Amino acid sequence: MRYLVVVALAAAVWLPSSVVRIAAQTRATATNVPVIPHDAVPNFFKNPPGIYTGENMGIATNSKGNIYIYHRANETRLLEYTPQGTFVREIGRGNYGFAFAHSVRVDAQDNIWAVDEGTDTLVKFSPTGQILLTIGRREDPVATLSNMAGAGVFHGRNEKYRFGRPTDIAFDQQGNVFVSDGYFDARVVKYDRTGRFVKAVGTRGAANLQFNTPHSIATDFQGNVYVGDRGNARVQVLDNDLNWKANFSNVGNPWAVCVSGGPGPANPGKQYLYVSNSWPDSAPAAAAEFTGEVYKLELDGTIIGKFGRAGKAAGEFATIHQMDCRDPNVIYTAEINDWRSQKIVLKAPAQTSPVAAREGDRGRPPSPVPAPPERSSISAESGQLIAFDAVEFLKTPVDMFLGPVGGVGANSKGQIFVYTRTGHPYATLGDNRTFSHGGSRLFQFDPTGKFVRELGQDVYGFNAAIGLRVDPQDNVWTIDQAASQVVKFDPDGRIALVLGRKPEAINVRPAAPAPAPGAASAGQGAGAGGGAGNAAPAGGAGGRGRGTGTPGSAFSQPSDVAWDRAGNIYVADGLGANNRIAKFDKDGRFLAHWGSTGSEPGQFSGVKAIAIDAQDNVYVADMGNKRIQVFDATGTFKTQFGNVGTPRALCVSRGSTQYLYIAHAGDEDGMEDGAIYKVQLDGKVVGKFGSAGKQLKEFGVVNSIDCRNENALLIGEMTNWRVQKVTVKR
How far apart are the C-alpha atoms of 576 and 572, rounded to whole Å? Predict the structure, then answer.
């Protein structure tokens, strides 16, 4: 009789009926398996006072023997230990990619990779702890303010650069990256060493090259890929091109797999595969009788032996979630149930006959998932290519990290300010309403890129950075999309003006049913996205209509700010419902607004950026309509041009001859289609430079450009979590 025990996901304490549960834990079918004697080193990991590990999700070693533990405590944290188990340091605390730890691996160059299922992000740290690369993208917190995910559901969307609660990562000798993805998807994804998509295979199911919670992944020196297909109770073996080779189906439900010898670059010689048939994370008593053991296998699937059992004593295993087996006789375990990691030393087993675990080595046609399209290249059809150089030059302290860069700007002294999404935005529980806090920080650097200070610590409205500008008086203005606020800091860092008000609470319940046709909900007029009495006007060439939204500073996800010669303030208020430009005097008193939702002149579909030239002409990046609209200072429409792609960032240079710099990004992941255009004020394209990607001189969704100096630009990127300093060659 097969014993079935329902296993709850580690991420949830309650699962509604709409959530797909993973398959039941099963007894391994291998029989007469030799037992490998083992010892556990007592109290091996030594934390200083005040540091505790919670659920130990990931564990890995580097080439020097140092050990990394990725765990869930009050916050998700990544800790480093010496080969003797002594605490060394914490890495990555407060970075934007840490929310709900799942695994950690170390590559051949000793870079540390954290896989976070909460943020759907892979973060690559250098051996010294700097962020080098990210793959995947955290869900925009603004999008979840009124639509919180709860337990979430399986989606299987198979997107190139987005994950569905990824679980693990591995590397081959060429530096390619393999990701098991995961809970809400059912696939394996391959990227090249720069993070560019190569191939994906897998759908949900039980056939070969189908998965039911691909939970762990490892590679051998020849580049073969071993996938712990937990829900299907098997390890699937793929070649380096992700074609199916074999299944190992008698070692239970593989929660964790690892291949001995390390990730290279040296040939480790003979390698072994270790597979953990882990005790389920809910610690059911019945399952303790037939789970918890770890199997040692030849790479062809032949079982050599097993060790361990379910339990919480030393040498027993309380839900192994990840293993490190760089040394085939020293196994490090990360365990969920007892909030611990163990160092296990294996002894030689008695000689017995090997146990087969392999299902054929049948050929399999290549994956039905289509190969990625050939990468687009920049052509000169919209102006000549501009030669340029770029450097990453900002130096943050070891405990500070940039996330998606909402805005970057420089003052008259060359000081640089960066408003970035970093840390962990959160919503409160147990209150009579739900409040949002945290998520963004404001940093200052000197002209050489050296960190100077943080401004605005604990500011009420720092939630989701979307823009930053520095005005002619060196005041620094931050724009926050989630808080719907624009905040002015004077040159000394004091708050001098606040426009807009952060919502007091967020709605986390499903939206109310739509009103009957012809009816309007309480407090709303009939205009598209408008407040009471603000029906959207018809735009028209040479005319201007009344703005959508309530007159004043009741913003709906503002995105940018600019000033005219008199010091009047113009706010781009168009990522939410308003689609307008709001104008205020220098003291913040409302003067006027214009714009509405639509595609006619004077209407907008996503007001993303704004800039003003020396003659007070107002340039608006109308992102959804893929155009730049130009107005005078009263809001009267003048002209438009649309030959610069999808404009996401905009600035006007200084000097006697001014130019527009306009950032185009044609995909949300910043990997397929991107460039920066240099444009005359009449809309004629001078040239363009750059392309989409993650390498130097490539751009990952440019969200901010500072062009105080026409030929020395600061470029803030959302998906690459960085600022590049670009020198445009004449």
Answer: 11
Distance separating alpha carbons of residues 625 and 306, to the nearest angstrom: 62
How far is residue 234's CA from residue 227's CA, in Å, rounded to a whole number? 8
| 645 closest CA partner among 668, 605, 670, 677 | 677
Tell me how far apart the alpha carbons of residues 624 and 549 are, in angstroms, rounded to a whole number: 19
pLDDT digits (tens, 9 = 90+) for 27-46: 999 999 999 999 999 999 99
Which amino acid is residue 51, in one-letter code?
I
Tell me, what amino acid is at 717? E
The residue with tokens 């072994």 is 272
* Closest alpha carbon to 583 in 614, 552, 607: 552
Amino acid letter, 710: E
Question: How far is Cα of residue 280 from the mean position of the Cα atoms in its chain?
Answer: 28
Whether residue 234 contacts residue 193, with contact meaning beta carbons closer than 8 Å, is answered with no
pLDDT value at position 393? 96
Query: Across the chain, which distance is largest between two alpha carbons, in Å?
Result: 90
At 336, list the tokens.
Answer: 């969920």
d(CA 43, CA 34): 28
- 3-state class of 142 per DSSP? helix
Tell me the pLDDT tens digit for each residue of 366-422. 334 444 433 333 343 456 999 999 999 999 998 899 999 999 999 999 999 999 999
How far is 650 from 662, CA to CA, in rounded Å? 5
| 554 contacts 485 by C-beta, under 8 angstroms | no
Cβ neighbours for 91, distance < 8 A, ≥ 6 positions apart: 68, 78, 79, 80, 112, 125, 129
Reading the block at residue 532, the tokens are 């009471």
- Low-confidence stretches of the chain (pLDDT beneath 50): 1-23, 360-381, 511-546
Q: Which is nearest to 583 in space by CA: 544, 614, 622? A: 544
Is the CB of residue 229 less than 8 Å from the CB of residue 235? yes
| Whether 260 contacts 296, CB under 8 Å | no
Q: Is the dihedral of CA 672, 154, 145, 93 positive or negative?
A: negative
Give CA–CA dist 674/646, Å, rounded.
9
Strand ranges, E, within 347-400? 358-359, 384-385, 388-391
CA-CA distance, 454 to 197, in Å (whole number)?
36
